[in-house]
């Protein structure tokens, strides 16, 4: 009873193929494409494939994970949270009032270098709970105005920081207006550490988004003063703090590059930071942190990627093992039809 | 002239009936009343009334749109779709400050999508327009006064014009026939375009106008026609013609309808009475109901579900947004001062936070619009059109003989083809070729004829067993001769013992002679001698009758002339061995009727002997045999059973010699009965016939094959194996239907047949006595009783798994379809393996279809070829037209046209399965990719205090569905194959995946949605965790909004495209190109877009080239997110494939293992996976295998 019924159906088609096409016949032209017979690879997830794929993933992922982890561990990072400490204890009951009224908010911090830090050492300020990605905030800028002097009056998108005293503000908008204005100066062993503030912004921003002939005018002249003021004599393309600030952060916790220290710091070096605590994060309970960090090829200190790679690599390895064991313990012939779900209940529905 | 004579013969018959109709004067009085107000002044060019009436031109337009209406109408059509309307509202809102993105980026995709759909509409309408132009510019000869006829365009015809139509031309409008080239002013009309019937219909003009035979005679012709207003009824017409102050009634007999064709008549003259859209054919053309597939209906539900999710997400977002906005001002002090909440617009006003939240809700609705795939509808349309192209181009569905490829007339239903649960098939012309072939006979107890029937061929082909016939005659050259013989239509008789005059040497040569003579005489056919070749063809009432006459001719008894009183034959004379002419005096014909089931002729041969020749169904003949005439009865009965089982139609032939006295008595009674005017005239005639048709002497039996189309049994078997139920709905009589049921293995010996018939003796007796109402109730009770009896049988048979067949005739069906019975009927019918409805009217066919469609909710497919199937085709979920010989009516109302029934197998099992799979995977995947994308937006919102800021650049957003992810989906929808066509046919049960809808079940859809959410979660959180705030590359730069957006987007594009690569199972270069191309295109886009002026590219300016590409983190993160998002799916798929494989996956496995060529293994898989099939020859083999095994041993 091993007959093959499939052959019976193809007879008719075969005869159609044989005869030559007639003139003007409606016979479809033969091509592999129209007959849907294009050569194709038809991969299915056979155990062999699955196990090798998982093994391959783990073999690739684990080294990457190790490398990433090492890179992250190589990075030396000093984080100093200062928003509370920089307020005299007696004024801490109303921090907002303190930050808004007090003129001299200088504060001194001491940092210890835990490990040798090779230059360049990047200085960041980190803000917390600050929604630079708020739609109102993100939109509140005028790219045209930033780029060209002639579009200085193009401030329609900048409300309410578009005009002050009847004149347009350059740079306008909430982003520029709320420019971060804490400043830091570092010294080691009473010796000033230079903070290089050049080239801390994206080159394309400096060159193409912020005009060389655009100067801040009428900035921070409104009724309400936001953040930092700008030197009206320096063109925007050189106001790198502004440029950095204007690249809005993606998440409410973010760091921005403040500058670079171009010398190595040795382990156990004591670093004195004199900072001007001007920026109001107290209204919205935001933290402020000063971060000094070196970088690796992978950037700053973040173990996540390395751990993630290791985890997934390990997981894949476990999966590969499990599948292997399962297939070994419970072998079954490929395509054993007794596993077909509708065989077990012949009704089907 | 033989032809002329023949026409006269027809003419006589028809003339009678037409006169009968004309006598219904009642209708004539209607003229002039409302609904019958049309007045046509023919040939009155100067008449004022004529010019005052404007009935519209003969211009016909079938287009959906005109230039002016195109935009409003098609836009309206487009925006009737909820999704499109939603996107339109989004696009409008995007011009307000509410919009989270720029207006252009939301308008453009909408414009593209709407534009493509409208483009398709334009294209389709343009085709119709071209057809109209061709039609409107056809030429016809029109009378221009003074007896001059000149060519004019169809569209310039006016009501009242006199036109002259030549042979084989179409009538340009509805005409009243005035005269023709024939003396009697008759003409023949082919109405194929109207009702699909190919036979010619005779029309005849009024006597009053019949003598206008020349152009010039119309010089002074003037007539006024008053008739009914335009209506859609093809078969009625009421009107009157006023000619020279006399009034003549007009009937449908004078009406020539537009789009029918003049045949066999050189020319006719006619008056135009209805033009253009007033013509009956145009009034009749209703738009076919637009059908939507079940998948699309479910897709709408998913879209609504996504809308719901969208609203929920927006709602949640708005609440959070409202809260955080309100908190921006605390006791008059700004918290998030950098947002300036003290000086803000309504959208962010903390003092009116609820309003801001409501407005934000609108913003969020727009923002999350990426959950709803805008391009889904247009992609599906594109895919379906391409799928249709593949169906149309399939060489396996191209019919060489008629030069007809398959033609999908609508692309809406491709995937529905993969879900068919029940097929309703017409019989004649669909299962059969509508040609009868004389194939076997049994004479004097000996069976002759070695022809092989389709059924036998199917049986032997599938079984691998040698043919029973061949076993018998192994020495003979059996097979090959039958092939060349088929050239004679209606004759497929092969037996060298009988052919070529060899029958004279057979033992019962005298019986054979009588047998053949009876075949040549006992019929009502009319010969038609071709004057050039001398070949004779026959016009018979039914094709089987023609088959008999042809068989007699081929075997040496050539019938060549019929007059009112005689029948003449060229007879083979066994003594001289030559052909002699013999004439028989035709005395009486006792015609066939369905109740008599027999016909007889009484002739007097040249020796003066009176002979009664009779042929009829076995049941009626055997009981009328004389005692000495039943010599061969047992043998013949045995043969008849064999024939019936082989799917042949059998008739028994018998004769009787009459003596003069008896005949005289009979003739007197018959004449009396015929001349009586009482109501039971017919019955009296029957009774007289009954008296004389007795004491017959058996000659033998004939077997005629109602020839099945090629491959029908195989196809039905495959469809049955695929678990599709097949119902035959036919207008034929019960016996024929049962025969065909046997022929195509829907019925078999040993199947319990539940016959519900109105022709039982009790019901007949009832009809004779009772009044109508009583009969009706009684009849219904009877039917009800039979149905409930059937249900009881069904209950018992399900225990012993006996197959049941339900056979029901039209009259009983009418009862069974009444509201209170139909559920029971349906229950019974669904329980039966085969259902055959015979004698069913077109309406009943449609009703049965509707009953099954609505009550079971399963997908129905109707297949038919004739005008009587139109209702059924339109009612069913899918209508398949057979573009055969029976005209175009069925094809025109079908969704897909194929040339042969057997192509249904490929259409359903291969294309249907593929399309179903493709569309359902495509929709699932579409939702997956949009959910994956949309949820990343939502998650980001949670980190942006739900302000409505998007993480992606506007153009990334709008191009997501258009460029980066849509092409691979389209490729999936057009090209993907789970298994090859060969394997689809080899494992028909695969089709059940569609019927049970396993690939588009809610669990699967939700599974994909869940996968989408999972992917989005992994992508988003991995990205933000890996890139949070630290420097993301060596240069110390940190991640900004634009970099995070670009990275996440890269991950989404990769994940979504690779998910696609994982879920398709057919990789051609096209797939490679589109999937990997989609990802590469994203990078190219980034490069190009980033290189544009920052005013255009805004946040994407140089983001890739400057920030992302040089950062290893970007690449490592992409790689990591890609794999980690796919691992859940791969694991799931591997486990599922390994331990819970679906049927297609098993076949894929078999294929991968290279076991698909191992017949034993495949057989095992197939057998173990087969649900018990109850019809088809496979089932038949199972049932009869015992019988088969015993038989060969016997020989």
From TrEMBL, chain A:
InterPro entries: CDC50/LEM3_fam (IPR005045). Keywords: Membrane, Transmembrane, Transmembrane helix. PANTHER family: CDC50, ISOFORM A, CELL CYCLE CONTROL PROTEIN 50. Residues 1-19 have a biased composition (Low complexity). Belongs to the CDC50/LEM3 family. The chain crosses the membrane at residues 49-71, 307-329. Residues 1-32, 141-160 are annotated as: Disordered. This is ALA-interacting subunit. The keyword Plastid does not apply. It is found in: Membrane. It is a multi-pass membrane protein.
From TrEMBL, chain B:
Keywords: ATP-binding, Coiled coil, Magnesium, Membrane, Metal-binding, Nucleotide-binding, Translocase, Transmembrane, Transmembrane helix. PROSITE patterns: ATPASE_E1_E2 (PS00154). Residues 656-687 form a coiled coil. It catalyses: ATP + H2O + phospholipidSide 1 = ADP + phosphate + phospholipidSide 2. The keyword rRNA-binding does not apply. It is a multi-pass membrane protein. ATP binds at residues 426-428, 545, 592, 615, 649, 730-732, 839, 845, 868-869. GO terms for biological process: phospholipid transport; protein localization involved in auxin polar transport. The chain crosses the membrane at residues 82-98, 302-323, 357-378, 926-943, 955-975, 1005-1027, 1047-1066, 1073-1092, 1112-1135. Residues 41-105 form the P-type ATPase N-terminal domain. Mg(2+) binds at residues 426, 428, 865, 869. It is found in: Membrane. The active site is at residue 426. Its EC number is 7.6.2.1. Residues 13-27 have a biased composition (Basic and acidic residues). Its main location: membrane. GO terms for molecular function: ATP binding; ATP hydrolysis activity; ATPase-coupled intramembrane lipid transporter activity; magnesium ion binding. Its cofactor is Mg(2+). Involved in transport of phospholipids. This is Phospholipid-transporting ATPase. It comes from Juglans regia.
């Amino acid at each position: 009873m091993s007959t093959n019924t499939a052959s019976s159906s193809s007879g008719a088609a075969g005869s159609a193929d044989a005869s030559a096409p007639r003139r003007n016949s409606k016979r479809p032209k033969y091509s592999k494409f129209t007959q849907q017979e294009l050569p194709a690879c038809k991969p299915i997830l056979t155990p062999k494939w699955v196990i090798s794929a998982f093994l391959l993933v783990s073999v690739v992922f684990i080294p990457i994970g190790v490398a990433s982890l090492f890179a992250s561990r190589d990075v030396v990072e000093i984080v100093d949270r200062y928003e509370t400490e920089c307020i005299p204890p007696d004024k801490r009951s109303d921090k907002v009032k303190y930050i808004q009224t007090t003129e001299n908010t200088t504060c001194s911090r001491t940092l210890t270098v835990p490990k040798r830090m090779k230059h360049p050492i990047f200085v960041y300020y980190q803000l917390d709970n600050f929604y630079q990605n708020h739609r109102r905030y993100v939109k509140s800028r005028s790219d045209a105005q930033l780029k060209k002097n002639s579009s200085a009056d193009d401030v329609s998108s900048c409300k309410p920081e578009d005009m002050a005293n009847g004149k347009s503000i350059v740079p306008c908008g909430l982003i520029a207006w709320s420019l971060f204005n804490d400043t830091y100066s570092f010294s080691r062993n009473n010796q000033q550490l230079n903070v290089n503030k050049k080239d801390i912004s994206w080159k394309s921003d400096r060159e193409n988004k912020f005009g060389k002939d655009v100067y801040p005018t009428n900035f921070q002249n409104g009724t309400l003063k936001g953040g930092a003021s700008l030197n009206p004599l320096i063109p925007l393309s050189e106001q790198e703090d502004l440029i950095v600030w204007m690249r809005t952060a993606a998440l409410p916790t973010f760091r921005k590059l403040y500058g670079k220290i171009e010398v190595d710091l040795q382990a156990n070096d004591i670093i004195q930071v004199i900072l001007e605590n001007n920026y109001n994060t107290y209204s919205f309970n935001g933290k402020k942190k000063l971060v000094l960090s070196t970088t690796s090829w992978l950037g700053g200190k973040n173990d996540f990627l390395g751990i993630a790679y290791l985890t997934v690599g390990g997981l894949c390895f476990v999966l590969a093992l499990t599948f292997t064991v399962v297939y070994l313990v419970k072998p079954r012939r490929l395509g054993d039809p007794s596993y077909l779900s509708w065989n077990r209940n012949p009704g089907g529905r | 002239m033989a032809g002329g004579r023949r026409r006269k013969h027809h003419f006589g018959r028809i003339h009678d009936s037409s006169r009968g109709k004309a006598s219904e004067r009642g209708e004539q009085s209607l003229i002039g009343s409302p609904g019958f107000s049309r007045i046509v002044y023919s040939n009155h060019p100067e008449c004022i009334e004529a010019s005052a009436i404007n009935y519209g031109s003969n211009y016909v337009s079938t287009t959906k749109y005109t230039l002016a209406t195109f935009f409003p109408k098609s836009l309206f059509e487009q925006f009737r779709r909820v999704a499109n309307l939603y996107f339109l509202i989004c696009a409008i809102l995007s011009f307000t400050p509410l919009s989270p993105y720029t207006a252009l980026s939301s308008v453009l995709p909408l414009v593209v999508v709407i534009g493509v759909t409208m483009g398709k509409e334009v294209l389709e309408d343009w085709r119709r327009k071209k057809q109209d132009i061709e039609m409107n510019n056809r030429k016809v000869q029109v009378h221009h006064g003074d007896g001059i006829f000149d060519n004019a365009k169809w569209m310039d015809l006016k009501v009242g014009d006199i036109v002259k139509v030549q042979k084989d031309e179409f009538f340009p409008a509805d005409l009243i026939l005035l005269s023709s080239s024939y003396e009697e002013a008759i003409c023949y009309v082919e109405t194929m375009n109207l009702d699909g019937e190919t036979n010619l219909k005779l029309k005849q003009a009024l006597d009053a106008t019949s003598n206008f035979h020349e152009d010039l005679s119309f010089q002074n012709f003037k007539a006024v026609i008053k008739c009914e207003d335009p209506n859609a009824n093809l078969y009625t017409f009421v009107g009157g013609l006023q000619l020279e102050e006399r009034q003549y009634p007009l009937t449908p007999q004078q009406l020539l309808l537009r789009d029918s064709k003049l045949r066999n008549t050189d020319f006719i003259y006619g008056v135009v009475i209805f033009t253009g859209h007033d013509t009956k054919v145009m009034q009749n053309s209703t738009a076919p109901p637009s059908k939507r597939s079940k998948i699309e209906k479910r897709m709408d539900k998913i879209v609504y579900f996504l809308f719901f999710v969208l609203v929920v997400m927006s709602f949640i977002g708005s609440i959070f947004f409202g809260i955080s906005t309100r908190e921006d001002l605390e006791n008059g002090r700004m918290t998030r001062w950098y947002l300036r909440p003290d000086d803000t617009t309504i959208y962010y006003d903390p003092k009116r936070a609820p309003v801001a939240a409501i407005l934000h809700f609108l913003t969020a609705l727009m923002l999350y619009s990426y959950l709803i795939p805008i391009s889904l509808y247009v992609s599906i349309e594109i895919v379906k059109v391409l799928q249709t192209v593949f169906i149309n181009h399939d060489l396996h569905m191209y019919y060489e003989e008629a030069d007809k490829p398959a033609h999908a007339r609508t692309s809406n239903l491709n995937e529905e083809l993969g879900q068919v649960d029940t097929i309703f098939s017409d019989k004649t012309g669909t299962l059969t070729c509508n040609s009868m072939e004389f194939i076997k006979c049994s004479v004097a107890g000996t069976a002759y004829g070695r022809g092989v029937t389709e059924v036998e061929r199917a049986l032997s082909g599938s079984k691998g067993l040698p043919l029973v016939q061949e076993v018998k005659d192994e020495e003979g050259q059996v097979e090959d001769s039958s092939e060349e013989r088929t050239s004679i239509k209606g004759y497929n008789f092969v037996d060298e013992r009988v052919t070529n005059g060899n029958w004279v040497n057979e033992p019962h040569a005298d019986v054979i002679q009588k047998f053949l003579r009876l075949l040549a005489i006992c019929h009502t056919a009319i010969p038609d001698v071709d004057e050039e070749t001398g070949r004779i063809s026959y016009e018979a009432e039914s094709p089987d009758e023609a088959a008999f006459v042809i068989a007699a001719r081929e075997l040496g008894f050539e019938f060549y002339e019929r007059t009112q009183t005689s029948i003449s034959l060229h007879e083979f004379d066994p003594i001289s061995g030559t052909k002699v002419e013999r004439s028989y005096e035709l005395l009486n014909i006792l015609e066939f009727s369905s109740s008599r089931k027999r016909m007889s002729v009484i002739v007097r041969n040249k020796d003066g002997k009176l002979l009664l020749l009779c042929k009829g169904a076995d049941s009626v003949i055997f009981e009328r045999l004389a005692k000495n005439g039943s010599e061969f009865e047992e043998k013949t009965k045995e043969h008849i059973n064999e024939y019936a089982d082989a799917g042949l139609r059998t008739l028994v032939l018998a004769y009787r010699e009459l003596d003069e006295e008896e005949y005289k008595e009979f003739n007197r009674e018959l004449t009396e009965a015929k001349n009586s005017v009482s109501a039971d005239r017919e019955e009296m005639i029957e009774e007289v016939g009954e008296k004389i048709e007795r004491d017959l002497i058996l000659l033998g039996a004939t077997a005629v094959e109602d020839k099945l189309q090629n491959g029908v049994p195989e196809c039905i078997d495959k469809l049955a194996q695929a678990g599709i139920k097949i119902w035959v709905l036919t207008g034929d009589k019960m016996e024929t239907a049962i025969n065909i049921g046997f022929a195509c293995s829907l019925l078999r010996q040993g199947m319990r047949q539940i016959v519900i018939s109105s022709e039982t003796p009790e019901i007949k007796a009832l009809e004779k006595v009772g009044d109508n109402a009583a009969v009706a109730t009684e009849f219904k009770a009877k039917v009800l009783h039979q149905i409930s009896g059937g249900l009881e049988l069904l209950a018992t048979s399900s225990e012993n798994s006996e197959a049941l067949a339900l056979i029901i005739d039209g009259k009983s069906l009418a009862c069974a379809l009444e509201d209170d019975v139909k559920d029971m009927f349906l229950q019974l019918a669904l329980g039966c393996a085969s259902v055959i409805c015979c004698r069913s009217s077109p309406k009943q066919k449609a009703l049965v279809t509707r009953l099954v469609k609505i009550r079971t909710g399963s997908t129905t497919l109707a297949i038919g070829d004739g005008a009587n199937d139109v209702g059924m085709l339109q009612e069913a979920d899918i209508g398949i037209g057979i573009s055969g010989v029976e005209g175009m009516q069925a094809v025109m109302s079908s969704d897909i046209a194929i040339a042969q029934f057997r192509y249904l197998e490929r259409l359903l099992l291969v294309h249907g399965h593929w399309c179903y799979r493709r569309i359902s995977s495509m929709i699932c995947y579409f939702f997956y990719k949009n959910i994956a994308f949309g949820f990343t937006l939502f998650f980001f919102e949670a980190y942006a205090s739900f302000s409505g800021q998007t993480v992606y650049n506007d153009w990334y957003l709008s191009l997501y569905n258009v460029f980066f992810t849509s092409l691979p989906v389209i490729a999936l929808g057009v090209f993907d194959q789970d298994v090859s066509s060969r394997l689809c046919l080899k494992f028909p049960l695969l089709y059940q995946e569609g019927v049970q809808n396993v690939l588009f079940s809610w669990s699967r859809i939700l599974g994909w949605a869940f996968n989408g959410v999972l992917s989005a979660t992994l992508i988003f959180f991995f990205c933000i965790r890996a890139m949070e705030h630290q420097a993301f590359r060596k240069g110390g730069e940190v991640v900004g909004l634009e970099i995070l957006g670009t990275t996440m987007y890269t991950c989404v594009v990769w994940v979504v495209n690779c998910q696609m690569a994982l879920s398709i199972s057919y990789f051609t270069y096209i797939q490679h190109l589109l999937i990997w191309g989609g990802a590469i295109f994203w990078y190219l886009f980034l490069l190009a877009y980033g290189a544009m002026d920052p005013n255009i590219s805004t946040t994407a300016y140089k983001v890739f080239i400057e920030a992302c590409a040089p950062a290893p983190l970007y690449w490592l993160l992409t790689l990591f997110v890609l794999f980690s998002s796919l691992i859940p799916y791969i694991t799931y798929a591997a486990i599922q494939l390994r331990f819970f494989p679906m049927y297609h996956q098993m076949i894929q496995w078999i294929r991968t293992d290279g076991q698909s060529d191992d017949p034993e293994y495949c057989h095992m898989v197939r057998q173990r996976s087969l649900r018990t099939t109850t019809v088809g020859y496979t089932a038949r083999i199972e049932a009869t295998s015992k019988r088969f095994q015993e038989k060969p041993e016997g020989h």
